[in-house]
Amino acid sequence: MLGSGFKWMFLIIGTTIGAGYASGRELWQFFGHESGLAILLFSIFFTVSCYVIMHVSYRKQSSDYLPVLKVIVGTRLTKIYDIMIFLYLFTTTVVMIAGSGATGQAFRISYWWGVLAISIGLIALFLKDINGLLTVNQVVLPLLLGGLLYILFLFTVDQQLNLFINLHEQRNWTAAFPFTALNILPLIAVLGAIGNKVKSKREIHVAALGSGVILGTISFIYNSSLIQIADELLLYEIPLFAILKHYPFEILIFMSILLWFAIFTTAASGILGIATRLKNICNIPIWMMAAVLILVMIPLTTLGFSTLISYIYPVYGILNLYVLTRLLLYPLWGNKEV
């Protein structure tokens, strides 16, 4: 049971840590200076949201997100949010594909080779349906999280940073709401697809609490590190590279590979959410559906990685606030659900 809980925990983290988060771009977009309390609130909100989504998914024994969505937002709004989730998964997967291209450019590799690499990888991954994604998450994410924490702690020690120096200044605490809301729709889509695979409530507890604590801790350390080099971030498409420039090229290569896999797993989660929703409409193998979706997405990646995050993410963060409110208030209305 505990092992299965970690499996779902890595699925949650893999869905959340993509091109925007792992690169630092998404964190800097929402947090930045005076955000310690905001990150603590995000960790709490995220844990509660994951627990409620998994609880509903487990109770409904769902295999796609629609039954879960009906419970969370109500029957009247289900159609609206169904469209929103579909568009969100589609556009954020475009962001992931664009992030793969941007990662390649950092090493003077053609943008399109980066796009081609992730496209082929996604199609190949789904030849094994959802099991391929779960396996990749369990192998790659411990390496990514460990590597990211190692670099951030190393940077903190080398630069003699005091991570807690500005804790008395917390005017940006409201950023916790749109940032948490931003990450909710893909979680509904992905966790709604595995309700019939969860075996016990203990798995839910491990997955929700573990993912919230890990993401909250990394977010705080990462954001504090970025604050120290705020003046340099305008020069970098991917803020993480502003930190990595202080270290040997081998570390840059290693972290870039892990960053690419973070992008890859989030893109895979997006494809999974769309495919499980469309399986009753298009009765074709998931890998074939992935191929069709990717072909449609590729032309949209030309908008640019940071441009997509700058405009798309804040808009969805605001639109999802209603869903976040419903999740956080679930103890008050959950006993009335049909």
Automatic annotation (TrEMBL):
Residue stretches in coiled coil: none
Keywords assigned: Membrane, Transmembrane, Transmembrane helix
Protein name: GerAB/ArcD/ProY family transporter
Transmembrane feature ranges: 38-58, 79-98, 110-127, 139-155, 175-194, 206-229, 249-274, 286-305, 311-333
Species: Lentibacillus cibarius
InterPro entries assigned to the protein according to its UniProt record, in alphabetical order: YkvI-like
